[in-house]
Amino acid sequence: MPVGIFRVCLVVITAIINHPLLFPKENGTVPENTEEIIQKMKEREESLRLEQLRLEQEIADQEAAQKALEKAAEVVEESKEEKVRWDMWTALSMVIFLLIELWRQDFQEGIWQDTGGEEDDMAVLGKAFKGVAFPEKAVLASFYEKRILGTTGDMARMREMVEGFADDLLEALRSVCNRDADMEVEDCMGVGSMYENWRVRKPFVCDLIVPFAPPEPYCFRSQTWCSGDSSSPNEQGYGTIKVCRADEDVTGCICDKTKLGEDMLCLLHSPANTTRPNSEMEDLLCFKNTQYLDANQVMKWFQIAVTKAWNRISHKYEFDLSFSLLDSPGALKIKFRSGKSVAFNLTPVVQYENSDVYFISHFPRSSLPADLPSSTHWFLTFAVYERRFIQLVSKMLPANACHVSCLQILSFLHGKQCSLTGPSGLTNYHLKTVMLHLLQARPSQDWAPEKLEARLQDMLKFLEKCLHEKKLYHFFIGNGKVPAELGFPIIFQNAEPLNLFRPFVLRRDVYRKTVDTFHEMLRNMSALINEYTVHIPLAHTNGIHKESL
């Protein structure tokens, strides 16, 4: 109860003290405080308004900058899309251009390989023939009879003498060699212009190839550029020769082709059978630490063997024998006491499988590319098949056909021109390849002897076309029309054509020199022929023309 009375009294006293009528002087300042508050509120409102304007301006600036960035991004994106579209069109155009170029080359190669003897193929004279005067038939016939035909008998006598001596030399070589350790040498074979009866330039040089094989129980296993994986252009026409044991099956096991790990062992070939001392392989003329036949080792071996063989039989002959070229192991020269000499080449080769294609260690007197991929790469020669093809075709041609005559005249003119202006990139092998292509392209009746002038012009036109295009394909490689009677290996017929003029693409200086020499030969052709032709009366010449008409 007392607590309740106390609370009531406390409330009453508080109300009296806070009554507005009490202390009037102190409450008189209330209006003045209100105005100050209002003034401060206005100032605050103004500052807030200014701050709002500032923030709105900043927001507007930020929005403008954002829009500018977005617009710039759109421009960049559009430029990228435009560039991508342009790059796509450029790439597409390049692809189309390359396809057209590849089709054009394939089309030209198809025409090249499918030459059918049509007159249109040889009807167009190039720029090199403008103003060129071909000798008359009578002059050409007299030149051939006086300058070239008389050398046939000399070639026959020289072939007989060289072959007899070579057989005796090889027999002596076999006797000085160790049959259990040295290479086994077979009988030699004659190839090239001397044995195809078109050699005209002196001195006459016989080319003989000598196949050889390893001693038992070893054998040669060869691989060409067209029988394995894809090879580089520099390896076209080459192959490798591996020396293996006869009972070793290198094709049926992958241990020879794949590097096995240290913890892996081939169950077919034990280390005792597959691993041979390096000295043993070097005795087999292999490249160091390999099983591949080394051409340089073969050259050294053959040179030493020939020297030993000559020392054994030299007492039987009244002449001296020496090596005429240091870089050619079989380039030999016979020197008689009278001062005369006879040169011939005895070159070691390896037979490719059971064919008459051979791997040759080097080409004597050749301008073929000497930059071999390595000394374990051997060039393939088709000289035996070339000789057989000429013999086979000659049987179907008219009597006294002019194909050999054309080649002899062209070889003579080119040789004479080179003696005047220096050597060129053209070789006699290129000229023979031209003749082989034309022999296959033209019917047999076109090679009658009275058509010598026309066929000589065909060979010159064909050669000019090849020089212009920098393309002269090997006659056998890639040629599906080789007569079946030759028994030519099908693997080379199915291979890509081999361009013999590829060096002209790589070396412009050699190409320019070759073309200039060819043009100069055409301009000097009549003068060169007239120089070696007996004088023919004009009346006799006119009579010949009347008979030909």
Automatic annotation (TrEMBL):
GO molecular function, one term: protein kinase inhibitor activity
Residues in coiled coil: 38-82
Domain Mab-21-like HhH/H2TH-like: 404-477
Gene3D superfamilies linked: 1.10.1410.40, 3.30.460.90
Domain of life where this protein originates: Eukaryota
Primary localisation category: membrane
Localization: Cell membrane; Nucleus outer membrane
Membrane disposition: Single-pass type I membrane protein
Secretion signal, residue range per the UniProt entry: 1-24
GO CC list: nuclear outer membrane; plasma membrane
UniProt xrefs under InterPro entries: ITPRIP-like (IPR026250), Mab-21_HhH/H2TH-like (IPR046906), MAB21L/cGLR (IPR024810)
UniProt cross-references to CDD domains, sorted A to Z: UDM1_RNF168_RNF169-like
Family indicated by similarity: Belongs to the ITPRIP family.
Described purpose of this protein according to its UniProt entry: Enhances Ca(2+)-mediated inhibition of inositol 1,4,5-triphosphate receptor (ITPR) Ca(2+) release.
Protein name as it appears in the record: Inositol 1,4,5-trisphosphate receptor-interacting protein
Organism expressing this protein natively: Ardeotis kori
Name of the encoding gene: Itprip
